[in-house]
Amino acid sequence: MAEKKRNWLLIILGIVVVVVILGIAAVVGFGYWMYRQMEISTTTTGNIEQEFADVRARFQGKVPYVEISMDDQDKAVVHHELEKETRTPLQHLRLVAYDEREHRLVRLTIPFWLVRLGKNKEINLSAGRSGFDPGVRLSVTPEDIERFGPGLIVDGVGRRGERFIVWAE
Fold this sequence. Notes:
Elements: H1 2-37, E1 39-43, H2 48-58, E2 66-68, E3 76-78, E4 92-99, E5 104-111, H3 112-116, H4 142-148, E6 151-157, E7 163-168
Antiparallel strand pairs: 1-5, 2-3, 4-5, 4-7, 6-7
């Protein structure tokens, strides 16, 4: 009888180990797949001014959806009056950021469906440990951006001199 009980314990233990391994593999696989959905390029060379000028030229004469005050960076003005009644399906959220301290330019493209995964929570530009900290907490949600539609979301400078432009396509 004791041997039957021992066999069942080994079987149950084996099943638990297999389930844990499959769970870890699923989490790692999902994380890798999510990473592959984003396009990230970093450079320390090139003409930074020209990069920003090219992006700004695409939105010449347009008011950014969010304006960050150079005097008071904790304040951001969101132009909700630019929002439409209906939402526009967006494909990507793009960011170009330059960190003066590290002399590094980052281009990031995030599929908009990935932004929507966060439900309809407010967007926080401060990314914690990334070093990128414009010092602004926005009261803008992915749904607000969809109502704004494609265009320039924000063009600003962070607390430590980081420059960044975010736009939706």
